[in-house]
Design a protein that fits this description.
250 residues, alpha/beta, 6-stranded mixed beta sheet, 4-stranded antiparallel beta sheet, 9 helices, 10 strands, binds adenosine-5'-triphosphate, binds magnesium ion
């Protein structure tokens, strides 16, 4: 579904990503972890067509991604800036429908089930400033789903949320990805979040010397689904994955 082939990105003379090869299969949930500054956001943006690639390629269904496309939806870490403050909750979701040229008369019928799915029924007339952080992030996810993308690209989407909200949203995103059969590439610096959510975890690391990020290891996560916050995290295999991947974050 999504592929990087020998993908490298430089900003000026500074190489940031070097020779990244990865594939994300249809309906797969792939997590990328790595220390701050190793190029995670750059990788996601390059795959989304938001950052120019220096060499190699980013492919969606075998075709080069050279500009943003509606089949690829991006969930940004900074939900406050991703939402339009002067639009209501429903109005923010409508944005994605407008982009798809869906007639306004159909909007309400499409928005209601999405808000329900993300626990925002009854909040449609509120403005983003009247929502909690977790609700704003759920709204951003609702808007991305309204885009009906095949792929969700998520960049540390729960980074600034408290631990409880974060766990709830992890479970909601895992459930949505399965129910709606989406393909997900999920960036996080939280190793446990990556193992908890992923079918596979890709560890990015910085190459000493030139400081470019490269893939250090790819691990298949053979934990049963649906996953559970307590049981899954206490599974001995969970701890083995954590031990194995931890060194890449040091
Ligand atoms: N537009 C840009 N121009 C110049 N350098 C950039 C640009 N964007 C990112 N960089 C540099 O590329 C490197 C990787 O940045 P990136 O944001 O991809 O890291 P990251 O892994 O997402 O980090 P974090 O975990 O802190 O979000 C950093 O050294 C950063 O300074
Ligand atoms: Mg980042």
């Amino acid at each position: 579904m999504l592929e990087a082939r020998g993908l490298s990105v430089s900003f000026g003379a500074q190489p940031v990503l070097r020779d990244i090869d990865l594939t994300v299969a249809e309906h797969e949930f792939v997590c990328v972890v790595g220390p701050s500054g190793c190029g995670k956001t750059t990788l996601l943006r390059a795959l989304a067509g938001l950052t120019p690639i220096s060499s190699g390629s980013a492919l969606f269904k075998g075709r080069p991604v050279i500009a943003p496309q509606t089949e690829l939806a991006v969930v940004f870490q900074d939900y406050a800036r991703a939402l339009l403050p002067w639009r209501t909750v429903a109005g923010n979701v409508a944005l994605a429908l407008e982009a798809r040229n869906i007639p306004a008369s159909d909007h309400a019928a499409r928005i209601a089930p999405l808000l329900a799915k993300l626990g925002l029924s009854g909040d449609g007339d509120k403005f983003p400033s009247q929502l909690s952080g977790g609700m704003q992030q759920r709204l951003q996810i609702a808007r991305c789903l309204a885009q009906e993308p095949e792929v969700l690209l998520m960049d540390e989407p729960f980074g600034s949320l408290d631990a409880i909200t974060r766990q709830q949203l992890q479970d909601e995103v895992a459930r949505l990805a399965k129910e709606e059969k989406r393909t997900v590439l999920f960036i996080t610096h939280d190793l446990e979040e990556a193992i908890y959510l992923g079918d596979r975890v890709i560890a990015l690391a910085r190459v000493k010397g030139n400081l470019a990020g490269r893939i250090a290891e790819i691990v298949d996560i053979a934990l049963p689904r649906p996953r559970q916050q307590l049981a899954t995290r206490e599974d001995p295999r969970f701890l083995q994955y954590r031990h194995r991947l931890f060194r890449h974050l040091e």
